[in-house]
Write a structure and sequence with these properties.
By secondary structure, the protein is an alpha/beta fold. The protein has 12 helices and 18 strands. The strands form 6 sheets. A 5-stranded mixed sheet has the order 2-1-3-4-5, sandwiched between helices. α4 packs antiparallel against α5 and α6 crosses α9.
Length: about 400
């Protein structure tokens, strides 16, 4: 009888499909760029879904967001979270500059994704993060992308500067009392009446806090909020543009999406008779004189004198520090302590240096100079006190510096 050998058939092994996603970004929300973004989304969606060995894991899109930092891109961050969760094996993107313009961010992200088994493919540069020379090429090309971003920012700043030099505005920023019609500022009559009332009330002796309270009790709304903050009232009473002039370059970007007021670091430009005036130049001057008068009266108030008056400066932005009184919860309105604060921070002008209590300042001075004859030693030995978030620096008249670390 013939011998029959039974063989077990091996089923073909079908490789597991890769979970593939794409990332797309444009930095400005314009019609042309949004059309380009839409085309990218369609292209990658079709490419992934028609590739047999791939599973579609989605397209992540950030529209109108800068590429200089990955932290401010919500869809980029969501994509990274999905990579961590094992939902993505491969990320497709058009180019390095779409993925990240910051070399450090790019390399850190790509390295981390490679460590967790996620591959990144850059279509334009034909770079695969899993290839041997991928990181070298990424480093070189990312440096070019970062330099391109810096160069573009410089070109934009140059264009804005030229506009200012010619007396032209760069953006039509909203201002209470006016509205833009094309390139012209026109008065809003009902808001102009409020502005005139504010200036006249302040000149007549009404405080900014009382003006704010009255505006909110009337239901008057500022341009960007539902109620008037006192800081807005203060800024309006210091805004010379209500006299009809236009002051250009009052603020600037010191890093992407971060603005600060211009205190002479960059040129400023003034255009007289640019738009109809709501108040006269004399009214504006009277309001500034009243402000200076009140400031001087407060400084002369003997109840709140400090040993450090005139000595404290902000170490972060270089402006002078001033004190203000912090009320207790007592019903009689007494004041319990004095707080030192950077003048730029107090006026909401961009500095974020941490405040300090006058009592803490006294403690620091006693540690350095001794408690005995403190006032005399301060005047005789200390030229200035620099305030930082984590320390106070006493600059002695001999040139030596003594550092006191804040708790």
């Amino acid at each position: 009888m013939p011998t029959v050998t039974k063989l077990k058939g091996a089923l073909p092994q079908v490789p597991a499909k890769k979970k593939v996603a794409a990332y797309a970004r444009v930095s400005r929300d314009t019609e042309q760029l949004m059309h380009s973004l839409s085309a990218q989304v369609s292209y990658y969606s079709n490419l992934i879904q028609k590739t047999p060995e791939w599973d579609y894991a989605g397209v992540y899109v950030d529209a109108g967001i800068t590429g200089t930092s990955t932290k401010v891109r919500p869809e980029f961050q969501r994509m990274l979270e999905d990579c961590e969760a094992g939902k993505i094996d491969i990320v497709l993107t058009k180019s390095i500059s779409r993925f990240a313009r910051n070399t450090v961010d790019l390399l850190e992200t790509v390295r981390h994704l490679r460590e967790i088994g996620v591959e990144v493919r850059f279509e334009r540069e034909k770079i695969n993060s899993f290839s041997g020379d991928g990181e070298v090429m990424l480093s070189i090309l990312a440096s070019f992308a970062e330099e391109e971003s810096v160069s573009l920012a410089k070109n934009i700043k140059w264009t804005i500067q030229k506009k200012y030099e010619n007396g032209n505005v760069h953006t039509h920023q909203k201002m209470y009392g006016y509205r833009w019609e094309g390139d012209e500022m026109v008065i809003v009559p009902e808001e102009a009446e409020i502005v005139r009332w504010m200036f006249q009330s302040y000149i007549n002796g009404m405080s900014t806090r009382a003006i704010t309270k009255e505006l909110n009790s009337r239901g008057v709304k500022p341009v960007h909020a539902e109620t008037f903050p006192e800081a807005t009232v203060v800024r309006m009473l210091q805004n010379e543009q209500y006299t009809g002039c236009l002051i250009l370059h009052q603020s600037y970007n010191y890093r992407p999406k971060k603005q600060k007021l211009n205190y002479g670091e960059l040129p400023m430009y003034r255009v007289d008779e640019h738009h109809p005036a709501i108040i006269s130049a004399e009214t504006f001057a009277a309001a500034q004189a009243k402000k200076a008068e009140r400031g001087e009266a407060a400084r002369r108030d003997p109840q709140f004198q400090s040993l450090f008056s005139g000595m404290v400066w902000c170490g972060k932005c270089g402006s002078k520090c001033s004190w203000h009184r912090s009320p207790t919860s007592r019903k009689n309105g007494d004041f319990k302590f004095v707080i030192w604060t950077c003048s730029n921070r107090n006026n909401q002008r961009g500095c974020d240096c941490r405040n300090i209590h006058d009592s803490v300042m006294t403690e620091a001075a006693e540690d350095i100079l001794g408690a005995e004859n403190l006032e005399e030693n301060l005047k005789r030995k200390v030229a200035a006190i620099r305030m930082y978030d984590d320390r106070l620096v006493f600059e002695m008249r001999t040139g030596r510096k003594e550092v006191w670390h804040r708790k």
